[in-house]
Amino acid sequence: MQADTAIIQPSAGKQPASIGRSCVMAAHPSDLDLLVRKTGLLSKKSRNLLNSRLHYGPHDPPDFCLVGPFIGAPYGVMLIETVIAWGIAEIVFVGWCGAVSDSVRIGDIILPQSALIDEGTSRHYIGPDPETAYPDMRLQSRIKTGLLQRQTSCHEGIIWCTDAIFRETPEKVGFYRARGALAVEMEASALFSVAMFRSVPIGCVLMVSDEISSGRWIKGFDQPRFKNSRRLVAEVVCDLLAVNRHESQSI
Q1: Which end of the chain has fewer beta carbons closer than 10 Å to its terminal beta carbon, N or C?
Q2: What CATH number belongs to 22-250?
Q3: pLDDT tens for residues 160-188?
Q4: What is the pTM of this model?
């Protein structure tokens, strides 16, 4: 971890005794609810964390936690900073994205290899003029393996991250598509930047909820293929958490 001279350090009230070493950050409330049910945390411990909800357990002591929902880079960074300060050593971010490449369709799954920075938070962690942030490729490989084990394909490549969802103009879409972007979303690059700064590995899996590649907005939030992808991703994340627990018990 780099030296941190910030005057205000990460804090969000009274720290729980333990939330484990792995954290899944789910941007959307429906994905958080799905993960809570599939991991068995529904009736276990939870608490408010800023304007979000932190779920931890079911084992004593807890070995993982779930946190969300959240939107936008600054708020996502407040959450990730807090859970890292509380001892989280591995993070997986689950989110939605909009297709900007013609090769990507609603319901597809994307494993980012890098994120083009078009948001304002990352520069406070990785320099004044950052262009790209990266996830942990070991974690990305583990997520890919989990998808393949469930006979599910995915795209791997570049994503574009912006603060301004209502300023995704045709010119910007064309610019970032020319740089290789498959899709656009709001939080990943900032979460990657903090994780790099804090020396904590982070993985990321995104589900394509809509398309703007044609120059018009095509919504797919209610499409069966998108809903099925959300279910598959939740199952893969649960598998990953189970493997983490088994490995920690074997040490």
Answers
A1: C
A2: 3.40.50.1580
A3: 999 999 999 999 999 999 999 999 999 99
A4: 0.93
